Each structure stands twice: as C-alpha cells, then as structure tokens.
Amino acid sequence: MTHAKHLDVVVAGLALADIIGRPVDLRKPPKRGALKLIDSITLTTGGNVSNVGIDLAKLGFRVGAVTRVGNDSIGRFVLQHYKTFGLDTEGVIIDAKAQTSATMVNVDHDGERTFLHTRGCMEHFRAGDLLSRIPYLRKASILAIGYLGLLPETERDFPHLFSTLKAKTSVKIFLDTAASPRISSRALKNFMPYVDYFVPSYEEAVLLTGKKTPEAIVDTLLRAGAPHVVGVKLAARGCYLSDGTRSEFVEGKTVKKVVDATGAGDAFVAGFIAATVRGFDPFRAARIANAVAAGCVRAVGASTAIKSFERYL
C-alpha cells in the first residue's frame, strides 16, 4: 500500500469495479440463450472513492481513500488501479467476509446508463471505519463522502459521525448523493449543519427536498441548516449554487457528442473540490467543475478523459 504524510483530499465511501458495455439497447435484449455483439466492454473502477479520487489525482492533487474492498480478484484490481494513479491506500479496509462491490453499466447509443449492482462488502461499511481513522483524516483539508443513498448502514450515524469529525479534525465535509436517496426532512436537518458542501443532482435533490425548482431546493437545504455551500447539479445546463448570501446559475459547457456519461457527477465533484483546494470561490469553482464534467463525458469510463487542473482554467 502507498502512504502519504500530507493529503489534499480524503475520499470515503463507495469503491467498486465497473464492467461497462456499450452500446446496449435494453429495449431489444438478445433472445434467451442467444448472443448479441456490442462495440466494447471495459473493466474499470467505480464509485465515488474511485471516480472522485482518480479524477483528483489526475487533476494533480494528493488523495487518500477510506473504503472497503473484498479479498478477491476484483478487490486486488481496484487497489492496483489506485496504486497506478498514486492514491494513498492506508485507509482501505480488506474485508474477507464479502466480495468487492461491483456494477454492470449498460450504456446506450446516447450515452445514458442503466446499472446492475451488487453491494458486496460495502454492506459492512460503517461510521466506525472513518472514526477509527481520525489521524489519517487530519492529513487532508477536505473529506469527500459518498454516496448518500447507497450507504444506509452509515447514514443513520451521519449526525454523530459528522459532529465528531468537526470536533476532532479541521476537514471540510463534501457530501455527495446517488441512487435516489430517500430520507426524512428531520434526518436531513440532523446532519446538514455539519456539511460544508452539498450539491446533489436535480433528481436526487427533488427526492430529498420535495421541491421542483433549483431555487426552492436550495432554499430548503439552507433552512435545513446547511452552513456554507449548497446547490443542484443540472446536467448539461450546469448548476445552481448558493453560499448562503449569494445564489447564481452557473452555465454548463457545451458538449457536441456525449460518448459516455458515466462519472460525470463525480467529475463535477472532483473539479469543485480541486478548485476549492486551490482557493477559488464557490462560483468560480463551479465553473471549473462544469468544465471537468463536460470533459469527462467525451470518452468511455469515469476518469479516462480527465486532464491536469490547469487545462480547465
């Protein structure tokens, strides 16, 4: 495993392997027992730890990981992939009780994705995996946690986890979402005051707040106690962002041909965090994040097209 004395960011939560097939038209599957040819099948890593972590490393930042992988060939592949991109793996737990989490990603002709997923050892991921690594987390300035919606065993402990992290470290917390998160407004209010950055996708934000417009969504999140930056990812349109005193639509970058939308939301998170670490204000950080996300969808795979940070300035 690789080890670093100082880190810019620690990414925690979901790590998995992705098997990406394209193009796959699920409306016209092969007949039972038959074979159908597609253009490509790619084995790569996925989940916020992999996508955000590798994106940040390619952007030029020092990144650590806290997650679980199984003691299996997929887990070894994930760790080797991290090593290739220079991620620090001191915080990775080898779980011998379950397989590494994995997803089959079916990409259609328009770049839209449909997923088949097994949670594997991520069913064992707990708040204690982070709380037992407080010294490790102190090495970083930002902790990116994901995904709300896919960590049910951990989400119930978010208030205790986040308040403890705030009390014992100086890290800023970026919380990301996925997979149609459904939590009560009361639960949201219990942990939102500890979250420094929260920018869910539009669909996820609607589920979390019950609101339909970006302005109403952001207002609801602020009233839930968000202390710093909240917003809504709006796909190709960009995003809507507020720092509590100022709110603004940040226009997205035009992409002529979307090859694969896998990891676009994670690329936005990586771009936003990278720009924040470099000292940019949230609205400038969002512009850079939109550019990183737009670049991401131009190639197959979540991190394939990511360049150095300076390329997005």
Major sheet strand order = 5-4-1-8-9-10-11-12-13
Shape estimate: globular
The value of Rg in angstroms is: 18 Å
Can you count the helices? 11
Task: Give me some keywords for this one.
4-stranded mixed beta sheet, globular, 313 residues, 9-stranded mixed beta sheet, 33% helix, alpha/beta, UDP-N-acetylmuramoyl-L-alanine:D-glutamate ligase
Description of the molecule:
With 313 residues, the protein is of the alpha/beta class. The chain has one domain (9-26, 39-305): UDP-N-acetylmuramoyl-L-alanine:D-glutamate ligase. The protein has helices at 47-59, 73-85, 127-131, 134-137, 152-155, 158-168, 185-191, 202-209, 214-223, 264-277, 282-296, and strands spanning 9-13, 16-22, 40-46, 63-70, 88-95, 102-107, 113-118, 142-148, 172-177, 197-198, 229-233, 238-242, 247-251. The strands form two sheets. The protein has a nine-stranded mixed β-sheet, with helices on both faces. A four-stranded mixed β-sheet has the order 3-2-6-7. It is globular and about 55 Å long. The model has no long low-confidence stretch (mean pLDDT 94). The chain has eleven helices and 13 strands.
Task: List the topology elements.
Layout: E1 9-13, E2 16-22, E3 40-46, H1 47-59, E4 63-70, H2 73-85, E5 88-95, E6 102-107, E7 113-118, H3 127-131, H4 134-137, E8 142-148, H5 152-155, H6 158-168, E9 172-177, H7 185-191, E10 197-198, H8 202-209, H9 214-223, E11 229-233, E12 238-242, E13 247-251, H10 264-277, H11 282-296
Parallel strand pairs: 1-4, 1-8, 2-6, 4-5, 8-9, 9-10, 10-11
Antiparallel strand pairs: 2-3, 6-7, 11-12, 12-13
Helix pairs in contact: 1-10, 8-9, 10-11
